[in-house]
Amino acid sequence: MNPSKSSQPSAPVVIARGLSKSYPRGSVTVAALRNASFEVGPSEFVAIVGPSGSGKSTLLNLLGCMDAPTSGTLQLDGQDVSQLADSGRTRLRRDRLGFVFQHFGLVPTLSVAENVALPAFFARRSDPKRVDELLERVGLSSRRHHRPHELSGGEMQRAAIARALMNRPILLLADEPTGNLDSQTGSSILELFRELNADGLTLIVVTHNPSLASAAGRRLEIQDGVLISSTPGSPPKPHGPR
Amino acid sequence: MNLSWHQLAWKETRRRPMRAGITLTGIAVAVAALASLLSFQRGYRRGLGLELDRLGAHVLVVPKGCPFDAASIALHGANWPCYLRGAYLDEVRSIPGVATAAPALMGAFPKSDGTQTVVVGATEDLLALKPGWRIEGRFPTATNEVLLGADVARKLARKTGDSAMFEDLPGPRRIAGVLEPTGGADDGFVFLPLATAQRDLRHEETLTHILVRLRDPGQLDDAVNRLRGCNAGMDMNIVPLTHLFRTIQGMMGATQVWMACVAFVALLAAGAGVSNAVLMAVVERTREIGVLRALGASPGDVFRLFWMESLVLCTAGAVTGLLVAAAASHWVESWLRERLPFSPTDTLVRLEPGVALLCLGSALTLGSLAGFLPAWRASRLSPREAIRAPSGT
Ligand SMILES: Nc1ncnc2c1ncn2[C@@H]1O[C@H](COP(=O)(O)OP(=O)(O)OP(=O)(O)O)[C@@H](O)[C@H]1O
Ligand SMILES: [Mg+2]
Known about the structure:
- The complex is a heterodimer.
- Chain A is of the alpha/beta class.
- Chain A is built from seven helices and ten strands.
- In chain A, helix 3 (112-122) packs parallel to helix 5 and helix 5 runs parallel beside helix 6 (183-198).
- Chain B contains 13 helices and twelve strands.
- Chain B has helices at residues 5-12, 17-55, 67-76, 88-94, 125-129, 150-156, 194-200, 220-229, 241-284, 286-295, 299-339, 353-380, 383-388, and strands spanning 59-63, 84-85, 98-110, 116-122, 135-137, 145-148, 163-165, 172-179, 189-193, 206-207, 209-214, 236-240.
- Chain B is elongated and about 95 Å long.
- The interface between A and B is medium-sized, with 34 and 27 residues.
- Bound molecules: adenosine-5'-triphosphate and magnesium ion.
- Adenosine-5'-triphosphate binds next to strand 1, strand 2 and helix 1 of chain A.
């Protein structure tokens, strides 16, 4: 319903300027993300890497409009979203963004097809053709009436990806999408991401998975809430453990 | 596959079937109690009204004693160890305002199977009180004649003109008439001429009660006062029937208010159960709420989702409760009959559409109140915090 309609085809999908987020924890405030500035162009595949607790999820939540930044500005598809009210962010998530989680986040009481249809339901639409199309795309047509607990981990993540694509987002955000999967299943998910990216979808993925990170066209490395390097292009350098 | 709010809510009951079942049962029990109570209240009032109409009398004159027992006697037939002197009848008849005074001598013969034969000695005065009676044949006048209630005639398989033996009465009797079914206690009575009954029951010159019809029912209080003031007034209990019925109803009313309070509290407790169950669901599904918010659910959508769960639970509970109440009404009826000091012959407990709708409405109101707090809480969750919550299921 809301296909990307940038004024110029090469305009960045994401423009972050001095993006910061701090959380109050007792009497002190924890700066989970400090002064991050970067851009993500259309059809880019970006991996966010860094040690645990470095602020990757915090950054992804800001990009996904799940949260408002403490300071700095964020533009998505040319729109400044840093000052948006809660309702505006909700609408943006619904119509323009797709989310994939480590824990899949499927609703256990609904069938695969119903899960995939949820974003359209929240947009007060119904598009069974789109559901069929997406299930076909992720190879779950035969599983449409199954409930999540009847699926393997890889199948659940495929269903979750189909659901994230339901409302034709301009940007797909994934937080450790292979974190709960074995390496073989993980690489099949990676393959799916590659295909989606090749079809023009902009992807930002938080990951600890080296092969997923190296598959990305660019890596944003974050440490203690600070963006320490933005490595454009591939091949990526191998990274030692910290 | 078209999603809808109530469908989503209904499917949620599958996640915790046990909890949903227990919560639903709470509502069902409370609604069943409420529905039975309301049905009984209506049935009882209607039944009393019908009894009064069928009796045809405004005032009942009985020997000194408990007026409730007296009413039971006159209405349903029983033995009563006290008697009125036959001479009182003339005195009652002479009171201004009395249109008809019908004397009666009643005797009950219990049977081994728990039923009883009720014999009523009466005069043709009784006919003036019973405009609704349809007799096939006529009222008995000769010594050996009887008039049978419809049920008695059916059980004996006798019709007008036949003769029959009654084990509690000496000698054969000729059936002068058979009453068409009245729906009341008269159907189970055997009517004899008063003199015959006094002879057979060995109570010459005595009566068990006198049924009095007034010229003007509006002058009830005056007539009652005059009856109480007459010479025989000291030995008689003058029972104004409308008052009696009102007293019975008032007595029942007090009990019913008490029972209504219990049902109401049960409903509130069940509502608290629903609230609690949905609140637990909100806590358990916090992360899922975060996911739904990420997919684009607004706070209003989340509110609606959980509010609908409460409504679905209450509605399903109410429907179950109503089905139970309808199915159990027969049992409730006989249970009540055994315990009530006085119960009309008509059906006491019958679930009517009005009562069912009222119960359903209460359950829906309760559901929307019970769901409000959990739904509001769920809708207030910050998506960022909710998504970090540990998995509940
Ligand atoms: N809601 C919150 N309230 C308080 N502190 C928070 C909150 N969310 C994150 N933090 C803190 O911010 C820092 C960054 O957290 P974040 O979840 O972004 O890390 P991460 O890089 O995603 O880690 P991991 O790889 O373990 O998922 C951490 O120190 C964390 O404790
Ligand atoms: Mg994280």
